[in-house]
Amino acid sequence: MKMKKIFLVIVIFVAHFSVQGQGFEWGRVNVSVDMSSQSSFFNGGAYLFKNHPERAAHFTLGYRLGRYWELAGYLGYSASAPEFLSTLPSPDPGYTVAFSNGARGIYGAILQYHLAPYGTTLPLSLAIRVGFDLSGIEADGAWLGVVTSYRLTHHVTLNLDTDCGSFRCARRVRWVFGEHSLVGRAALRLQVSF
Description:
Largest sheet: 8 strands, antiparallel, barrel
CATH architecture: Beta Barrel
Number of domains: 1
Distance between the termini: 35 Å
Strand order of the largest sheet: 1-2-3-4-5-6-7-8
Strand content: over 45%
CATH class: Mainly Beta
């Protein structure tokens, strides 16, 4: 709860100082959809959601504040959750993951700092972001990331999001295998600006 309050204060502070003297512009609004996957030990070739709690889809609505900042909110969908891990009875014990299949809603907020100013025509750009999983389903609180963007047209951008944090599904599996570090998530995101 304390982390949520700190994040909210930072967002209000950045929004206040970035928006001073700036009226609403449709050109600053963007929407995007992505499919993400946490790094984990799960297998699977096709991009399916059932029995893959490390995968999710997100819809994001963002607004550029000032020249460099962007504030966004997101809604997401995950079809599975890891329920428990157990040891298999055998001479060489292994591990298995049980899944509960069922739709779960994900929601949160993102604050991004773009290295290129608003209105640039560069085809490639980078942004640094901090996000907070307000639902608590996908991640344990805050996470950090980098966005690499490639502008396809004036209004359409393809983004590769790489995030690092305590993502629940991958973290749980890694603990069983003796790895206690932070885990990553990657997402391919299609963004449309107005």
